[in-house]
Structures are given as structure tokens and as C-alpha cells.
Amino acid sequence: MLNLIKTLFIILTLTSLPMTAQNKKHQFKPVKAQLAEYRALYVLNESDETKIKGVIRNISNAMDDPRLKGKLYVELLAFGPGVELYRKKNGYDKLLIPLKERGVIFVQCENTLKEKNIPKADLYDFVRYTPSGNGEIILRQYEGWAVVKP
Fold first, then answer.
1. Rounded CA separation 42/21 (Å)
2. So where are the chain's domains?
3. Span 141-148, mean pLDDT?
4. Which candidate in 30, 54, 79, 91 could, as Cys together with 109 as Cys, close a disulfide (CB 3.0–4.6 Å)?
């Protein structure tokens, strides 16, 4: 029994050595921004206020990241229930205008407007439109954009 315990101890010790050395060699370091520009498409298809405020906060945090500051181009795409973010009656303009001033582009899916019978006049004037939210996601991803769905 004692020999078995010694053998197990030796095996465990020997197998953990390379892992320890590897962990020391590959310690976490935040990635450095190498490119002149980064593009991110944030996607919102929910109307929950907590989710909406979370997406706004995520965009702001990304834009404040010192590695991305001045290099990040952001588009916020709403479709389905996410249209509520852009409806004037919901009062989210107080959260959106500071991001708009920082260059964020706000985009709404036209399919959603047709399906929900919402006129463009009900949305903020600074909102832009795409024929299809899913089409926008697909095309942006193939253009190399990071697609973020918090």
C-alpha cells in the first residue's frame, strides 16, 4: 500500500511539473491593439430595460478602453423587440445621444418596422436603416467586424 501511495505521488508530481512550467510561460497579458481601426457591431433584439442599458454600458466601456480609444468604430443594430430602444416614446435618447456624439451609428431593421407596423417617424431622427437585421449581421461579419451580443 505504501508503495502504491509513493508511486501515485511521483506520477502526480511529474505530470504537474510541465503544467506548472507551461502556466508560468503563458501567463495572461491583455492583448495590445495592433491595428489602426477596429469595427464592432453590437446587436440588440430585446426590449428589456436592463438589457438595453447593459448594451449601452458595454459600448461605452469598449470605447473607453485605452487600447481602443480613438480606434473603435461602433454600429448598434436593433431588430425585433430591440426596436424599443429607438422609439421616441421610451426616452432612451438621453443614453443614446452621448454615444452618438462619440461616433456610434444607430441602425434599425426595416423588416421589424414593417412587421410591427411602426412608422419611421416614431423613431429618433439620428437612426439609420438597413433592409434586414440578419443581413446586416451576416454582411458585417464577412467584412471582418466583431459581432457582439451582450
1. 39
2. 38-148
3. 98
4. 79
DSSP per-residue letters across 42-87: EEE----HHHHHHHHHHHHHHHH-TTTTTTEEEEEEE-GGGGGGTB
Task: Report the run of H or E that residue 148 belongs to, with start and end.
Answer: strand 146-148
Quote the pLDDT of residue 26: 79
Taking CB atoms within 8 Å and a gap of at least 24, the contacts of 10-17 are: none
Residues in CB range of 48: below 8 A, 6 or more apart: none
Q: How is residue 49 written as a grid cell?
A: 430595460
Specify the pLDDT at position 25. Answer: 76
CB 108 within 8 A of CB 78: yes
pLDDT at 59: 98
Helix, strand, coil abundance in the chain, percent, nearest 5: 50, 20, 30
Its pTM stands at 0.81
- Grid cell locating 102: 462619440
